[in-house]
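Known limitations

Files may contain more than one protein. Parsers should not assume a single record per file. Below, a two-record file is shown to illustrate correct handling: read the sequence, read the token line, then continue until end of file.
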Amino acid sequence: MTPKPPPSSYAAVFIDFENVYYFLKNHFHDPPDLNDYVLDIVRTLREQLSARGLDSLISYAYADFERMATAPQGALYLMGVSTRNVLGTDHKNAADMQLCIDALEVMYTRPDIGTFVLVAGDRDYIPVLQHLRRQARQVLVAGFRESVSGDLLQNIGADHFLDARDLLAPERLAQLEKRRTDRLRAAEESRRARTQGVPSATRPASPDGAKGPETIAVAPLATGGVPRPGAPGAARAGAPRPAEELPDFAPSKPVVGDLERRALAFMLGEFQKLEAKQQRRVPELWLGPFMRLLADELPELPDYERRDLLNQLRDAGAIRIEKREGEPHPFSVIVVNYYHPDVQALRPEPE
């Protein structure tokens, strides 16, 4: 029997620089010296790989570097990282495809490379990572937990994930977290100030001085759809409804979880976008396309957890899911209960 060869100690590192850069920019509210934070992550990653006995023979970084405020190519070169400039767009990270092509090329041309390290985490990388593992290569993923797809993390396993927070010095991470906390607090104070400035005729006051709930329309759609808030002749949001008016929804219960509320708010925003685009009332939303959009909105969750969010919204009486006959296959749609208090509270204001 032929003895199994020892595992390779050589690694190839593929850095979606653009992905990490824009996560830091958006999540931590555009901190100064953005490139330095990404470079710190790359530098510490290489050190940790070396501590594991892995020699990073190949290191590539991908981005549309011309769109960035400062150019990090020189610093990356001094660290032994080759740069790949890819033309990006406002809608898609163009580094994805080039990174996957290079990773496959290295796999087929460098059999001595035993470990592939991906610094990113979009779910688009799942096919190439699965292919690398089928070829008996070890795969590691590094990134910020909030930006790494839950589906990808579930696929590779938590033991093969490196949290980018652990790749930053504690004082550097504390600076970022403080900046985010300060900006969020300022935004919340500004929002409260605007809310308190709304005239009382628009939003009636409750006995304790707080603004009362919005009103909803009670007239159903001619097509059999659901009523919509904000129309004349509306009833108070908190008013009880006879059970026969909403026979297909579960009894209303509060939507208390942060993730459930995020999913519901995102869903209501998608309804509003469709209505603005089609210039008509949209009574239902196709489930399949919405789940793909929700994957981009909540990438940190695996697919089964995102589906469970909808189940919880359904059990709370905020939505129902119905089957429709279609060609070539049946499909499912989401119908919203506009009488539900949390739906009324989270529904976006008309633009």
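...continuing to the second record:
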Amino acid sequence: MPDAIVARPGAWRWVAAAMFVCGWGGNQFTPLLLMYRRLGGYSALSVDAFLGTYVVGLVPGLLLAGPVSDRRGRRPVLVFGTVVSALASLVLCFGTGGAWTIYLGRLLTGVAVGIAMAVGSSWVKELSGNPSDGGAGAEGASTRGAGAESAGNRGAGPEGAGSGGAGGGGVGDGLAARRAALCQTAGFALGAGVAGALAQWGPWPMVTPYAVHILITVAVPVLLLRVPETRAPEPAPGRGLLRSLVDDLRVPAPARRRFRLVVLPMAPWVFGAAGLAYAVMPHLVAARVGHWELAYATGLTVLTLGTGAAVQPVVRRLHRAAGAGQGRACVVAMAAMLLGAALCAGNAVLRSPLLAVAAAITLGAAYGIAVVSGLMEIQSMAGENDLAGLTGIYYMLAYSGFLLPTVLSALSRLLSYPVMLSAVALAALGCLALTAYGTRPDRASA
């Protein structure tokens, strides 16, 4: 195993910048959906397909980039992902030329965001272990986790699986998870806000938002070259690279029960909540906001993600609560999800723009707590050679919830939105019960 590289203080900030610009590129398209229908003449089905193409690109980005970076190094993979993010916006600038240009741009965007989430989150964690940088101060935290003993015990009990024990997600009581979640959330929010404002009031609405993203991204790959590499290339003796990648995607055996009971039922609601807030709600109240529908949809997007960023410090207090562990944060997140889903179900009947705002705030809070607590769970389960791979698995599960608006749209010919959103609320209730059961002390230690 190669010797660890001690990170310079603040080195994680350039990685955060890469996650920020990739998140910006990923979510800048969301408030433009109405614009493509109105100015581009695309059908609702085509617009939903644009969203689906993004998720298709995410899957290889999330599942392959993390394990490859575990074996071949963080820097080259994240530099590649950031370049792809800028290239995707360049392709989307030519979206007026036809739907296939948009499909390609969205596919590349998904690949870039997947790389940034899986690799960036892991690299930020490793760089945040530097004591002079506000990390935990544990030597093992700056060396890709702890030593062999800690790596073997991670996820084995309440300290390993539930509270981010030594060498797991406990760097600075979840400091790394909060940093990663905050920078990606900020990118999602500002990308949507700026793109929506430019599309509503700026010139060349189908080009300018993407040009702005290219300008803020172009220098980031060069800046990443200054960041210390924390995963020197390693050979995989006795097995091929593909077998090594598959192994990196496996949840360690001691943590599998907690993964099934806590992470699995909560993760899809991370972006499921976002989809309800800024994809479903604007559609339901569009008739009430008139020609301001694009600005309103942009506002809901920024409000949801801004609330998500604002509440993330709450996870630290929940994590430190006596006898609670980070499991309490997961339960609080799912309780907020349930309340937000119930508000959406009620608004499917009332069609109130103000109630949609309340739902967006509630779902934004649920998103913010869930994304950080889920990352903390994964970082405490991962061994030293599979951190990025398991992070990719987590985000793939989280992004599956982003398909919820598309599923509801497809079913709307058969069922009404009040019925469908009531079913969504019931599903949230079931996942809340499962998460609460999985985070009980006797379950955590089972």
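Parsers that stop after the first record will miss the second one. For reference, the second record is described as follows. Residues 66 and 119 are 5 Å apart (CA to CA).
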